[in-house]
Amino acid sequence: MTTRKTVAAVAAALTLSTLTCLPAQAAAPAVADGEQATPIVIGHRGASGYRPEHTLAAYKLAIKQGAAYIEPDLVSTRDGVLVARHENEISGTTDVADRPEFADRRATKVIDGDPVTGWFTEDFTYAELKTLNAKERLPQVRPDNTAFDGELKVPTFDQVLELARKRGVGVYPETKHPTYFDSIGLSLEEPLVAALQAHDLDDAEDEVIIQSFEVANLVELDQVVDVDIAQLVSSSGAPYDQVAAGTGVTYASMLTPAGIEAIAAYADGIGANKDLVLPRTGGATTTPSALVDDAHAAGLVVHVWTLRRENQFMATNFRVGADRNAPGDMYAETQAFLDAGVDGVFSDNPDIASAALADWLG
Hints:
The chain is an alpha/beta fold. The chain is 28% helix and 17% strand. It has helices at residues 7-14, 56-64, 126-129, 157-167, 178-183, 189-198, 216-224, 240-245, 251-254, 257-263, 291-297, 330-339, 350-361, and strands at residues 31-32, 35-36, 40-43, 69-70, 73-76, 82-84, 107-111, 114-118, 170-171, 174-175, 209-212, 228-233, 269-273, 280-281, 284-285, 301-307, 344-347. Helix 2 links the parallel strand 3 and strand 4. Helix 2 packs parallel to helix 4 (157-167). It is globular.
């Protein structure tokens, strides 16, 4: 899986020149007997509105608050251990910058075409990484979360899987920067699959969904593991592997009806920026786009990201007051997306999303 032999075929399908290049497999239907499946709540990086993200404490709280799935973003250590961090640069989520013994590890690297300066997981063994303490990434926005700084560690993917199995919830891992990690000899896909197999979570009946903003690694994973696949799409830009290959594929081209049909050849769902489902005009949400209907017609579910309770992360019609960091009406926002037909929501605040879902279901 360290090569990208399928990129050309993927690009051909996604640029709509053909829909037959990709391996044909039936996607899990978004609707059954004409009825939408019960939507789900995904704990975005855990309950990251209340605990530092991607920590076992955040995942445990998300489960307690009703999340059906917990989401670990996966990056690699130097010795090939998958750990849960939103980015491989960890100065914002650990105390590494305050550790003099690691001062010489600070570096500038080009990640997905952009220069990034800091400390990177791939420059640490796991034994070194686990000496670091996790901390709140948004201390100005979520000052209460800083009370846990220094108390929590960076979990491995194995630890997250153990927790999910023990608590009876699903796991929704995202491969971060797979092209970059391939380029430095630390492919994410093989250890991901090995971990799922080791925990007996590599079957279609298991509650596992693998997601990525890139394309080729998802096509490859679809061929080697029998779990659900979700293609992440943003409201602008393009998958980095497609940029690197010069295919011209963008997220916009992937979300045409024919592009969605191409996604359905290797994926079971779409993880969409929420503005793609409820577009904004003048800061407020408008009528739903065609994305959910088009995806359902292709047999794909749609999960939107990310619902957060703070005003600054919401459309203006869900904000309460003028303080950007104060809670808005995420309950109403959640129900608006459910009304738009989505099959799931990623949320930093699973308690609010779960309550809104329960009331929406009646």
